[in-house]
Amino acid sequence: MSRPDPSQAKLIQPNADNRYEVTAGDLPLSCPMPGMSLWNSHPRVYLPIEASGSAKCPYCGALYTLR
User: Fold this and answer.
1) Which residues contact 4 (CB under 8 A, 6 or more apart)?
2) What is the reported pLDDT for 41?
């Protein structure tokens, strides 16, 4: 899941999926990610994914995997 084009109006639904695949272009990784609707989400938290290749959000439990 790469960062969305800011010119696109459609936002990614936050906390809708349990797993997200991200790329180096998404770093530094935060949950919710840029481009996700924030009105019904939790506070943004930055997740250390570089060392292990995966990270789990402490708020919503979403699992991020680095591709």
Assistant:
1) 10, 11, 12, 34, 35
2) 81
